[in-house]
Amino acid sequence: MRTTEEVVETLRAALRDVGVVLPSLCVDPVTGASDEPFALVELGRCNVWVAERLASVVRGERPPLGTYVTDVRDGRVGEVRGHVGGQVQVRPLAGGREWDCPVGSLELTPPEEVLRAQVRRANRAGRLPC
Questions:
Q1: Pairwise CA distance, residues 118 & 125, whole Å
Q2: Which pTM was predicted?
Q3: b/e per residue 1-29 (b: at least 16 CB within 10 A)
Q4: Cβ-Cβ contacts under 8 Å for 36 (sequence gap 6 or more)
Q5: Confidence at 130, pLDDT banded by 50, 70, 90
Q6: Cα 28 to Cα 39: distance, rounded to the nearest angstrom
Q7: How many Å apart are CA 79 and CA 101, to the nearest integer?
Q8: What is the pLDDT of residue 19?
């Protein structure tokens, strides 16, 4: 049997792999200092966006909320914001209106493409009117 610390690190890595970070994840200090053979795991607190993303992963939604995707039909890059009626709701990274997309038309976006879209958005926001 693994130690509680090892289990916490395994859980942390598994959550990180699906894009979820629980900042307060740790071994419970009270039971960790007691004579209990296995301490409790403190999942801690998180903001509502992390909780929503965790729920999406647990429900098995693919791709989970917060994932950056590319719509292969037209090349738009966006962030998954919901799942409704077999469609995925995607918010463009460069700004604009959300759109619905079938799951089969989405691919994960490479990090460099996400960065390009974010830079385009920042550049557009930084332009001053003439």
A1: 11
A2: 0.71
A3: eeebeeebeeeeeebeeebbebeebbbbe
A4: none
A5: low
A6: 6
A7: 12
A8: 86
